[in-house]
Amino acid sequence: MADIFDKIIAGEIPAYKVYEDDDVLAFLDISQVTPGHTLLVPKKHVADIFDYDDQTAREVLLKLPILARAIKASNPAITGINIQSNNGPSAGQTVIHSHWHLIPRYDDDNLNAQLAPTIDHSADFTPARYQEIANQIAKEMEAGK
Ligand code: AMP
Hints:
Blueprint: H1 4-9, E1 17-20, E2 24-28, E3 38-42, H2 54-61, H3 63-73, E4 78-84, E5 100-106, H4 127-144
Antiparallel strand pairs: 1-2, 2-3, 3-5, 4-5
């Protein structure tokens, strides 16, 4: 059965995309734990970390540092980044399609050094603000290719 990320990949529901190629898609997490919070997903349906074949792992994981650099470059206030993947419901995975959270950190974000991506700030973000953030990251991905 198609999960919500399959539907985003298929273009059936909208997302603020920041990067796409044949193998992966990166888009803003709707919750925006911090501004710029991005998800990287394989297009192939991979349930969780236990489900990766080597080729898909290469395609996805090689993109993590490239995407992290683009996110950091998109906003000079970003001084760090948390990368997290929850695998299995017991680990907090709610969408059963493997995804990697890239959560930018700001010196003044008042969050603990460790955090789970469960803080929902979506009420603070207008469509224009999401789009502005996505455009900035997409521009840096384009520049870094
Ligand atoms: P996890 O709890 O690690 O499985 O993370 C799932 C993430 O998907 C959450 O951080 C949600 O905010 C995010 N999410 C769910 N639906 C959407 C959507 N339609 N667009 C963007 N992000 C979503």
